[in-house]
Design a protein that fits this description.
With 338 residues, the protein is of the alpha+beta class. Strands 1, 2, 3, 4, 5, 6, 7, 8 and 18 form a 9-stranded antiparallel β-sheet that branches. Strands 9, 10, 11, 12, 13, 14, 15, 16 and 17 form a 9-stranded mixed β-sheet that branches. Helix 2 crosses helix 3 and helix 5 crosses helix 6. The longest helix has 16 residues. The two termini are 19 Å apart. The model has no long low-confidence stretch (mean pLDDT 96). Bound molecules: pyridoxal-5'-phosphate.
Amino acid sequence: MDGIDWGNLGFGYLKTGVNVRSYWRNGRWEPLEVTGDENITIHMAATCLHYGQEAFEGLKAFRGKDGKVRIFRADENAKRMIRSAEYLRMQAPDEELFIDAVKTVVSRNEEFIPPYGTGASLYIRPLLIGTGAQVGVKPADEYMFLVFVTPVGPYYKSGFNPIRVIIDREHDRAAPHGTGHVKVGGNYAASLLSGDWGYGQGYSSVMYLDAKEKKYIDECGAANFYGIRDGAYITPKSSSVLPSITNMSLRRLAADMGLRVEERPVDVAELATFEEAGSCGTAAVISPVGSVYDPDSGVTYTFGDSTHAGPWSVKLYEALRGIQYGEREDPYGWNIVL
Ligand SMILES: *Cc1c(COP(=O)(O)O)cnc(C)c1O
């Protein structure tokens, strides 16, 4: 695409050609519509506006070394959106409709997929909202499923550098039997104050502990957390952690590299024992964590030399990136190759 400076893209919205939509009306999903319109028109009493019937997904398409386009693990995003919709009592697109919409929007915006070698990719944002009018608190009878794309730059402009994190004991993102495990906008609204609290003190991200006991690690901002110790990849298991597809993929790669994988409650005191730490998600794959500050005790936990990513984090990052860009074989069948 003329006029796009691929090497200097950030993580923001850039207008592309088309988006795709389907409406649930009269008990069925209507055929997918392809449109250049960036706006949506919905009823003022739509349940997404008043009662938070909203779920979303985030995934990426990559222009590979061989020129082919690869979409990473869209089937897992489809399954997760179905789980999110179930919890919010929304009608969900089935896996077939979800994948069809994703493939359509990516192929119809082919000129917006950044070239190989720029480190950039095409971010894909599926959105599901209750559009039916309701004033009483109950699920809508109409839904809109929409998918748009936008090219995004490499997360790391200045290299794969560790971030500084602060533990937030003042705010909770999610409760143990609440919505933390599903990808819904309400969780994000609930994390904005906390994020600002952390940035205001000079940290890139906040760490959430379990809301009940404040004893176990949940997540790092809107990313999962892992630590490496004695040949083990250790990541929190908690009812208020969002099951990250990146983390799921890293666990598989870690196991195949010979690391022991432990998915279990991780006591915050274990921070003192990790050789490496990282946060993971679609946006960056891995953000190495250099240090975690606990304002309660005044202790700063550091990992490795805290200015360079540890060797396992680098290896895991390169393995996943390599599969996404078609530089390495994909023995797991994770990519949809267009
Ligand atoms: C989306 C998200 C993640 C990362 O999930 P991926 O599937 O790896 O992108 C982690 N935590 C939260 C709270 C999220 O919403």
